[in-house]
């Protein structure tokens, strides 16, 4: 795998199909659950904590799948999709760092919603600051993230935890 500092939508789809980090390693979900159109920046030594940084974008189109069903006559993007997008990015970072195994969201310490995504929005920007990366028999990253709607902060997450686990090591579903 060639480590790049930005990724197109086609690259993200290749990741979803297991072709970016290799079979059995971190993947993004396929559309419609893929909540990213591109990763515009990914580095291992930047961000607020100097441990890594990811910036990604999602273009908002009024016909996105979640608007008609959440809620009828009052369309907004479910908040959990914004959180999931940030978890997706932390998992992508671990794959990019060559941590082997399948990605799993583990937890989040704190989530704050201060705005909502409506069909009138144009672009969501995600900014992830990696706080810590542990590479043992499995990899774990801890990160903070902010989701911006048209440049204004809307969601803030503290202490998101994502792991990548080789076969047989993934935590069981509760």
Detailed description of the structure:
- By secondary structure, the protein is an alpha+beta fold.
- Helices cover 15% and strands 35% of the residues.
- Strands 1, 2, 3, 4, 5, 6 and 7 form a 7-stranded antiparallel beta sheet that branches.
- Strand 6 and strand 7 form a beta hairpin.
- The longest helix has 18 residues.
- The protein is globular, with a radius of gyration of 15 Å.
- The mean pLDDT is 95.
- This is 3-hydroxyacyl-[acyl-carrier-protein] dehydratase FabA.
- It is found in: Cytoplasm.
- InterPro entries: FabA, FabA_FabZ, HotDog_dom_sf.
- Keywords: Cytoplasm, Fatty acid biosynthesis, Fatty acid metabolism, Isomerase, Lipid biosynthesis, Lipid metabolism, Lyase.
Write the layout of secondary structure elements.
Elements: H1 9-16, E1 38-43, E2 53-59, H2 79-96, E3 102-107, E4 110-113, E5 123-135, E6 139-149, E7 152-165
Antiparallel strand pairs: 1-2, 2-5, 3-7, 4-7, 5-6, 6-7
Helix content: 10-25%
Low-confidence stretches: none
- Any idea what the radius of gyration is? 15 Å
Mean pLDDT: 95
Beta strand count: 7
Structural class: alpha+beta
Gross geometry: globular
- The tally of helices reads 2
State the end-to-end CA separation.
34 Å
Strand portion: 35-45%
Largest sheet: 7 strands, antiparallel
Order of helices and strands: HEEHEEEEE
């Amino acid at each position: 795998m060639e480590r790049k500092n930005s990724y197109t939508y086609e690259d993200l789809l290749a990741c979803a199909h297991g072709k970016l980090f290799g079979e059995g390693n971190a993947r993004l979900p396929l559309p419609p659950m893929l909540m990213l159109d591109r990763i515009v920046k990914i580095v291992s030594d930047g961000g607020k904590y100097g441990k890594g940084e990811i910036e990604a974008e999602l273009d908002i189109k009024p016909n996105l799948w979640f608007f008609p069903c959440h809620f009828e006559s009052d369309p907004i993007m479910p908040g959990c999709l914004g959180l999931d997008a940030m978890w997706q990015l932390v998992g992508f970072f671990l794959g990019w760092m060559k941590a082997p195994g399948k990605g799993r969201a583990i937890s989040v310490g704190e989530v704050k919603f201060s705005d909502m995504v409506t069909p009138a929005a144009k672009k969501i920007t995600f900014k992830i600051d990696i706080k810590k990366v542990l590479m043992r028999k499995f990899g774990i990253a801890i990160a903070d993230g902010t989701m911006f709607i048209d440049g204004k902060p809307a969601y803030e997450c503290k202490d998101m935890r994502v792991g990548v686990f080789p076969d047989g090591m993934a935590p069981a579903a509760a």
